[in-house]
Amino acid sequence: MSASQRKYRQAPRKEVTPLTLDTFSSLESLEKIAKYGEIVEASASGILINFKREDFIKKELRGNLTLESLVGHKVFFTIHEMDLEISGTVARTKFLGKKGFQVAVDYSSDSPEYWRECLIDLLPSS
Description:
Layout: H1 3-10, E1 14-26, E2 32-34, E3 38-42, E4 46-51, H2 59-63, E5 74-79, E6 84-95, E7 101-106, H3 113-122
Antiparallel strand pairs: 1-2, 1-3, 1-5, 3-4, 4-7, 5-6, 6-7
């Protein structure tokens, strides 16, 4: 387990009422990666997002069983219900079978700690 994974796991997680994403895009190229996603879990250092295969724009991502090519990429997304844009780095991905994929985004380096803790308090619990 890398240091960044240990850091991610140290922050208490909060299951949230699924919040929808308007966009999920590359921060470097501004290319849209997915048109929809749902935030299902959050902590003061990262956010866990579920995607269905059909949510991805690129044919290569829809046709793969892994999203490892996204790990390490800087991304940004907008939480629809809060009209809030968040940026971070894809920390890990997981294939969920017919349910799609989970993508963990670490946003701790892009935001101050107090802001991240306030965000967690504002997210609705499930």
